[in-house]
Specification:
4-stranded mixed sheet, 4 strands, about 15% strand
Amino acid sequence: MTTINLKDLYNVNQQNIYVLLLNAQTQHFEIIIPKTHNPVDDDEFLIFWEYHIIAYAGQQLSDMSTEFTYNIPFPNSTKHFVFEIKTKEFEKLAELLYMIQNCFYNEDHLDSTIDFQFKASQYFNDAFDNKIESATWGLLASANNFLSE
């Protein structure tokens, strides 16, 4: 299994992420997305925002994987979001990792970030309206807890 920390992909373009995935010579990946907010220092809405974005990213990972698992860090912990996947869809994975790292760490790609965030919000609403089945209900429920506080 190859571990990929999204923070390490800062300023890495999509093509180079794809090469990184190919060079790993595996289909098993551990994807780490560092938390950026906590309830001690941040507003509840920021916690909601992060968890619902991560839930959507996790759903996208699930959709391209034959095996999928994830953890839900306590909001006040320093632990990160971790997804374990098995996939052969390296191009899709590279594109998604690039989008996620832009969303959290690179403000230069505002149009794609806004689009990703819009899709995450739509996913959140559709999941709670029972229009779709979610593979990341735990993250959605955590996000919803902060939305309703």
